[in-house]
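ok, trying the design again with the full structure, not the truncated one.
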């Protein structure tokens, strides 16, 4: 089996474990803060996941990867697609453009995942190769991503934005 297949399988297992952990997490703890502005004191309460930081402690290094929102715990990707030129039926062209955009977004989501870093500052691909994670798990994770936005453009193209939990 190729290294790429092993790498993707490792990523799938890791992401599945994190997704399952996120689904079973305890209630969020409110974090209170007090701020002062020109003699006025105001209090604010912000909800922070109780175990979010603990879940990723020692596993993933928080790095600046476009498409990864560490505070919300999501990965997002956008894809754009055009219909095939030989399609003349407008309804069919819209559907095929949306499908092409979805596939492109899934590809971009995988690319974003592979850009993430693991300790000690290694790429996700190397980490997955070492752990021998099966690619089918990653494919399932990516195909299960939530469609956040679908938009048809005036030029006949379509745009899809996907999100998945870290």
């Amino acid at each position: 089996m190729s290294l790429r297949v092993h790498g993707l399988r490792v990523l799938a297992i890791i992401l599945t474990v994190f997704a399952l952990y996120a689904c079973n997490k305890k209630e969020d703890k409110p974090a209170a803060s007090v701020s002062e502005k020109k003699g006025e004191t105001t209090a604010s309460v912000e909800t922070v996941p109780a175990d979010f930081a603990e879940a990723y402690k020692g596993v993933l290094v928080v790095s600046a990867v476009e498409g990864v929102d560490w505070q919300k715990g999501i990965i997002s990707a956008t894809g754009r697609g055009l219909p095939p030129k030989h399609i003349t039926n407008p309804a069919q062209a819209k559907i095929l453009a949306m499908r092409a955009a979805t596939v492109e977004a899934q590809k971009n989501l995988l690319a974003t995942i592979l850009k993430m870093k693991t300790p000690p500052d290694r790429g996700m691909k190397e980490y997955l190769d070492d752990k021998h994670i099966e690619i089918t798990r990653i494919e399932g994770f990516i195909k299960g991503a939530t469609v956040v936005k679908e938009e048809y453009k005036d030029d006949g193209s379509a745009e899809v934005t996907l999100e998945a939990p870290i």
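Keeping the full-length input from now on. Confidence is low (pLDDT under 50) at residues 23-50.
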